[in-house]
Amino acid sequence: MITPKILWKFARPLPAKATVVQVVAAYALAMHHAGVMRFDVLAFVMAMVCASGLHVYVNGVNQLSDIEIDRINKSSLPLAAGVMTEREGLVVTILAAVLSLVIGATQSMSLLVTAVLYLVNGSLYSLPPARLKSTAFGAGGIIAITRGVILPLGMFSYFNTVLSGAPGLSFEAVILAVFSFGIVFSVALVKDIPDIEGDSRNGLKTAAIVFGPSLTFKLAVGLVSLSYALLVVAGLVRLSPLVGLLLLVTHLGLLAFFLMKSRAVRLDDKMSVGHFYQLFWKLMYAEYVVFPAICFFI
User: Fold this and answer.
1) What is the b/e burial string over 179-194, where b = at least 16 CB atoms within 10 angstroms of the residue's CB?
2) By C-alpha distance, which of 182, 256, 185, 186 is closest to 226?
3) How many CA atoms lie within 13 A of 88 on its CB side?
4) 3 by DSSP, 3-state: which?
5) Confidence band, pLDDT 50/70/90 cuts, at residue 269
6) Which of 76, 118, 145, 232 is most buried, by CB atoms within 10 Å?
């Protein structure tokens, strides 16, 4: 029997929480862009359920295709641990995809296109013949495009349609998506460092295997640093002076904290890398709170 606890582990809590904050931030930025202070409960709930379903599908397909690998790398996951059967996992995954598509089709073209692109990319990541997760940068690229760009911009466009009557994107939504692309790509690089043993046994050529843990780690740290820099520069150039200044101060602090934590990571210690991996997600949560708040209230 699938309990809520098992389903939550199947959905992977860290990225699941990121999905929630991305949808909330998209609504806040859409209100700011439209100049409308209105909370459409139905539209928000539909978007949240749609995004959650997409997330469950992508994680479900990944786990269903990697049961043997996960028994080595992530033995606590429901399918690898045997607390969820493959049939149960397949049913949950298919239902999640169908639910997202139905919501998208009944709500708006923006939401439907977002759902279709997300599902296609999630399949390309895990399933043959593409199986992009088996390549050095294919994994990071497809994850970053899907979660970092397609999801937040698709949600923003949908909410903008709800609030102003037409789809569209704002400068703020785009630069936040650029930041997300960088940090999600970095997440994809770092998450494979502790998984070298299982991945190499199964023929995967992740960045951690091809370039080694040290270089992969440096690439991830550098990409996050660049993402912060691009967001701040964009804010200083295109947004108001006060917003630009607040972005500069807050993001210098976040970047300094991140770099300090990066120096303490021991790449030969799976627990140390795991804690640092969690930090990436926490920084993403923080960004999706800090950036919209600065734009919205200033």
Assistant:
1) bbbbbbbbbbbbbbbb
2) 182
3) 13
4) coil
5) very high
6) 118
| Per-residue pLDDT at 113 | 97
What's the structural domain count of the chain? 1
Distance (Å, whole) CA 164 – CA 158: 10
Contact 150, 187 (CB under 8 A): no
Residue type, 259: L
Inter-helix orientation angle 41-65/86-107, to 10°: 150
Round to whole Å and give the CA distance between 85 and 243.
50
C-alpha–C-alpha distance, residues 154 and 133, integer Å: 23
Q: What is the pLDDT of residues 215-260, one digit of tens each?
A: 999 999 999 999 999 999 999 998 889 999 999 999 999 999 999 9
DSSP string, 32-58: HHHT-----HHHHHHHHHHHHHHHHHH
Considering only CA atoms, which of 143, 281, 146 is closest in space to residue 207? Answer: 143
- DSSP class of residue 77 equals S
Q: Which residues, in sequence order, are CB contacts of 163 under 8 Å at separation 6+?
A: 30, 31, 34, 36, 38, 40
Q: The tokens 């299982």 sit on which residue?
A: 198
Alpha carbon 262 to chain centroid distance?
20
Instruction: Say if CB 285 and CB 18 are below 8 A apart.
Output: yes
Q: CATH code at 251? A: 1.10.357.140
- pLDDT, one tens digit per residue, over 92-118 is 999 999 999 999 999 999 999 999 999
Q: Rounded to whole angstroms, how far apart are CA atoms 179 and 285?
A: 12
**Length of the chain as a residue count:** 298
Give the residue numbers spanning the domain of 52: 4-297
Over residues 276-288, the mean pLDDT reads 94
